[in-house]
Amino acid sequence: MTELLKTLCALPGPSGCEDAVREFVLKKAKPFADEIRTDAIGNVMVFRKGKTALERPVVVCAHMDEVGVIVKKITEDGMLKFGFVGGVDPRVVIGRAVRFGDVTGVIGIKAVHLTTAAERRTMPKTKDLYIDIGATSRAAAEAKVSLGDYGVFDSAVVEFGDGLIKAKAIDDRVGCAALLTLLEEQPPIDTWFCFTVQEETGLRGAASMAYALDPGFALVLEGTTAADLAEVTDGKAVCRVRGGVVLPFMDGATIYDAALFELLRDACEKRGIPWQTKTRISGGTDAGRIHKSRAGVRVCAAAAPVRYIHSPSSVAAVSDCEAVLAAARAFLEELGGEDE
């Protein structure tokens, strides 16, 4: 699955502009699909018939979009003022490269020798940042980009250290990679494999997907915040890279179905899949919208722990990504009444 993850992470797909990822997903899914649907908002829903079926559909989903930037203004001297698409900490982007299609830029801020002591003690605000695309004037910049253009971090995908991978958009291309891998296998039960849009800007694609399919069960595959850094102690680490798949029981948007949490936990235990849970209630996933759809949906989640999430250089362990895939496979086996 690692090579697939690398390819997916390299694709641009900020919220609302997931086209490149969607085209790749459709191409990879087509040979294995019994049915493919897309909707007006851009979701991809792929059905694969299993050995049995449940009364209401089963959904396994991941979101295609990533955080990024959007052009809001072009200055007279050719600099771009921008906003973030999704939640991004301004501290992690200064001096980092971004790209708008074939146009490369660098995120800058006022030089330190021009700042006041008070400014140096506070977090930079987005309005204080700009993107330098090398233009000499507004007209020169407008020849390359337009207001409303989306950009993504320009960051190489690199394997390093003891089984780690560095890339942008591991959240949530890890989930997409797991779904595409699972699609190559006949599932134990009829299953919809869903690739959603605009998760980073309010779980929007998940809402329309869940309404359309009205599933009885949904498993959300994700990347989640790992803060297991030097000198971070106790529960502040949230979860740990190389600690296995993360099975949350609650986050900022969802209280996960207790019985499904136990089913997934026990399935991992039985198969020797390493797992952990989050030690702080934070974040959110597409489950936040899915579980409230129509008359309600029973939901659970499986995530890869990711350091420096929503940055140009997110870091995850290959073994944790593989554990997400194994947990998703185990979930479908348990619902289908199959053992390992």
How is this structure best described in words?
Helix 1 (2-10) crosses helix 5 and helix 5 packs across helix 9. The longest helix is centred in the last third of the chain and has 18 residues, at 318-335. A six-stranded mixed sheet has the order 1-2-12-3-13-16, sandwiched between helices. Strands 5-4-9-6-7-8 form a six-stranded antiparallel sheet. It has nine helices and 17 strands. The relative contact order is 0.19. The chain has helices at 2-10, 19-29, 117-120, 138-142, 170-183, 204-213, 258-271, 287-290, 318-335, and strands spanning 35-38, 44-48, 58-63, 68-74, 80-85, 97-100, 103-109, 129-132, 150-153, 158-160, 164-167, 191-196, 217-225, 245-246, 275-276, 298-306, 314-317. By secondary structure, the chain is of the alpha+beta class.
The major β-sheet equals: 6 strands, mixed
**Count of β-strands:** 17
Strand and helix order: HHEEEEEEEHEHEEEHEHEEHEHEEH
The chain-level structural class is alpha+beta
Low-confidence stretches: none
**Secondary structure tally, helices:** 9
Shape: globular
Q: What percentage of amino acids are in beta strands?
A: 25-35%
Helical content class:
25-40%
Which strand order spans the largest sheet, edge to edge or round the barrel?
A: 1-2-12-3-13-16
Kindly report how far apart the N and C termini lie.
20 Å
- Rg is 21 Å
Query: Could you tell me the mean pLDDT?
Result: 95
